[in-house]
Amino acid sequence: MRSRVRAALVAGTALVGAVLGVPVASAAEPVPAPGVGYDVSHPQCDDSLPADAAFAVVGVNGGTATTENPCLADQWAWASAASGAGSSGAQPAQPRAQLYVNTANPGEVRDQVTTWPRSGSNRYGLCDGDNNAACSYEYGVARAEDDVRIVLDTLGPAGAGDAGIGAADLAGLSWWLDVETMNTWQTDGAQARRNNRATLEGMAEHLGSLGSRVGLYSTGYQWARIVGTVPPFSSLYELDSWLAGARTLRGAVANCGDEPLVGGGRVVLAQYVVDDLDHDWACAAGAERVPGAPG
């Protein structure tokens, strides 16, 4: 999601750009207006971060679902100092500091990992260590529990001061589930997509049970490959979307008008990349217009 490798691949692969509908930059590309946010994680550990962030989303993990971002505390302190302002017009303000987590489902290679669950019971039935929806759901719960542990251990008030996060602060905290093909997912047809969905449901429901707000980050192309169509009875169905894939602010604004990843949600953020740094535009409820461009 936030790696220099990802940005290079997107920039260098015309076929992927065509599939994702990546816009082409133009000479008339406007200067970002107030209200632009950023998202950062371990690839930005040694970078100077922008001082003009309206909001920021910080990665909890170190690139995969079972790792930790070594710069989480410093980046969270930077995010907490964001202005929290929206831009002019209809663009809404965003929570100053938000989190995102990597997601995955290694059920097809469960013999190669130590984190695959061996027990548990949920709406999908009993988890017995096999590759099924019940164990996929338990895997998602376990990943979310670990992410919460990382956040509380790293960002506790004792270590993060006024920006610290205690258990009571989880209520209302914004989390985004990062769903990308570069991580490990099941791939064998409709059952695989159901299992992948079960993992995300486990993560979303655990975070939601703490009072946190949960959203989904992906592109339409990647979401279709990993999860597919989400039915209305799924706990993912009404979650909001943060869409990736744009290379310019103009493209991000256009993506605000795309279909959300799930039928019951809205597109509320759109990401674009400038100079290898992820920028984020908060989508207005109405029609979008590029800031600085003629009406």
Description:
The chain is of the alpha/beta class. The chain has one domain: TIM Barrel (Alpha-Beta Barrel), CATH 3.20.20. The chain has eight helices and ten strands. It has an eight-stranded mixed β-barrel, surrounded by four helices. The protein is globular and about 50 Å long. The two termini are 32 Å apart.
Element layout with pairings:
Elements: H1 4-12, H2 14-20, E1 37-40, E2 56-59, H3 72-80, E3 97-102, E4 121-122, E5 125-126, H4 133-155, H5 157-160, E6 174-178, H6 189-209, E7 213-218, H7 220-226, E8 240-246, H8 249-255, E9 267-274, E10 277-282
What is the global morphology? globular
Widest sheet: strand order?
1-2-3-6-7-8-9-10
Strand content: 15-25%
Structurally, the number of domains stands at 1
Determine the mean pLDDT: 86
Distance between the termini: 32 Å
CATH class: Alpha Beta
Q: Total number of β-strand segments?
A: 10
Helices, by number, come to 8
Give a concise summary.
29% of the residues lie in helices and 17% in strands. With 295 residues, the protein is an alpha/beta fold. Strand 7 (213-218), helix 7 and strand 8 (240-246) form a beta-alpha-beta unit.
List keywords for this structure.
globular, TIM Barrel, alpha/beta, 295 residues, eight-stranded mixed beta barrel, 8 helices, two-stranded antiparallel ribbon
